[in-house]
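Much of our argument rests on the idea that a fold can be written as discrete symbols. Part of our work consisted of pairing the sequence of a single chain with a tokenised description of its backbone. No coordinates are needed to read the tokens, only the vocabulary itself. The record that follows shows the chain in one-letter code together with its fold in token form.
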Amino acid sequence: ISVWSMFDDYVLLGDSRAVGFSFYGFLPEERVIAEAGATILHLEEHIPDIVALNPSNIFLCYGLNDVSIGIWPTAEDYVAQFSDIIGQIQAQLPDANIFISSILPARDPAFQKSTAWYNIPEYSQAVSDMCDTISHCYYVDNDATAEEYSTLWDTDGIHVQIDFYPHWAANLITEVYSASLDEDGTSVSASNTTADAA
């Protein structure tokens, strides 16, 4: 089963790395609301667009610009505003599940552009902890996948190559199925997913 066939009744939002989901033709443009330089402030601006689509699943792939832009000097500041924005979404779409992707790491030579990206793991952990406190909000851990496929980063150390997207997508879909099973009182590990990332 292709991982892309498992994306149904959803919207995916994010920054330039998320743009690749539609740019490379994996997902339709009308379901991917992403743009270069985007942060969670852009997510807030797109709440009317999300509501108009009325999806069952909302995938959020932000963080790279959020960490480096300097608006949120600490991870705690960041998740405080992030949780507020999620609350705004849930007030209008209370039945939707929200899946927040961990922040994909930056790699050399990206740190020449911003040393703040060394703090990505700290911000991702804060997002993970936040998800534990919000109903219908789930954290998607990409750390192991990013390590396994570290050669699939572009030469800028920021963006990922086309071959990384199926693996990233498999993580997102695995969490959807895990969340569904958790709601039924059971659980599933990533190794049990039926999604084929090829």
